[in-house]
Amino acid sequence: MKARDFDRVFPEVMNAAHTIHFNLEGIDLTDYNESYRTYADAGSKDFKSAQIGYITATELRAIRDNSLWCQKTIFYKQGSQSLIQSPDIHQEICGS
């Protein structure tokens, strides 16, 4: 998939999902907004060559900005090490 398709595909997937699981490992929540770009900014970059942090920050920002997606997202602070939910992080990102 090309990054330019992200703005079409990502919302479709997010809207269809019953529950969203999001691994926050390696994300600095104090500056992920700095890594965020709009979907359109992705342009013709291929996801295979895009920086992982860039894509993850864009996904996280999109979830944060959509209250329905935020409500159905479970955040994991150290997702590769533990599948324990992080409700405090959910509050920080989603405000609820």
Question: Can you describe this structure in just a few lines?
Answer:
The chain is mainly alpha-helical. Helices cover 43% and strands 8% of the residues. The protein has one domain (3-94).
Description:
The protein is mainly alpha-helical. The protein has one domain. Helix content is 43%, strand content 8%. The protein contains 5 helices and 2 strands, in the order αβαααβα. It has helices spanning 6-16, 32-35, 52-64, 67-71, 87-94, and strands at residues 20-23, 73-76. Strands 1-2 form a two-stranded parallel ribbon. The model has no long low-confidence stretch (mean pLDDT 75).
The major pleated sheet works out as: 2 strands, parallel
The helix/strand class is mainly alpha
Strand order of the largest sheet: 1-2
SSE arrangement, N to C = HEHHHEH
Bulk shape: globular
- Spans of at least 5 consecutive residues whose pLDDT stays below 50 are none
